[in-house]
Amino acid sequence: MARYVLYKNRNWESLYPMDGIIRGAVVLFILLSVLLFIVYLFNKKESRIVVFDLAASFIMAGGFAVFSILQDTQSFRAYYFILIAFGFSVLIQMIKTAAVLLLKKDQKKNS
């Protein structure tokens, strides 16, 4: 498995601009976090679920940014594989948070 990971790392580095893709993903996740926060401020939904989802999105986006900046393929062999999995989980969390922000009805209006 270690040979395959090293082979894929070299192959991806030769075929794609991996540093640019990773930095672009970090910028995208930060922009999406800011956008979610702006939507939260305009909706003023005070539900705990909304706040916890928003906090989880911020923490995961920050973790992705920190991991992508501090690690590389020299110190962590499965770096690209972990980034792909982590990136998809951050994206899914942000989609979930956006759905909760935009679709959840205000609890004060219903009661």
What does this structure look like?
- The chain is mainly alpha-helical and 111 residues long.
- The chain has helices at residues 2-15, 18-43, 48-70, 79-103, 107-110.
- Helices cover 83% and strands 0% of the residues.
- The chain starts with a helix and ends with a helix.
Mean pLDDT: 87
Roughly what fraction of the amino acids lie in strands? under 5%
Unreliable stretches covering 5 or more consecutive residues: none
SSE class? mainly alpha
**Biggest sheet descriptor:** none
**Count, helices:** 5
User: What's the Cα radius of gyration?
Assistant: 17 Å
Bulk shape: elongated
How many β-strand runs?
0
**Share of helical residues:** over 70%
Summarize the structure.
The protein has 111 residues and is mainly alpha-helical. The chain contains five helices and no strands.
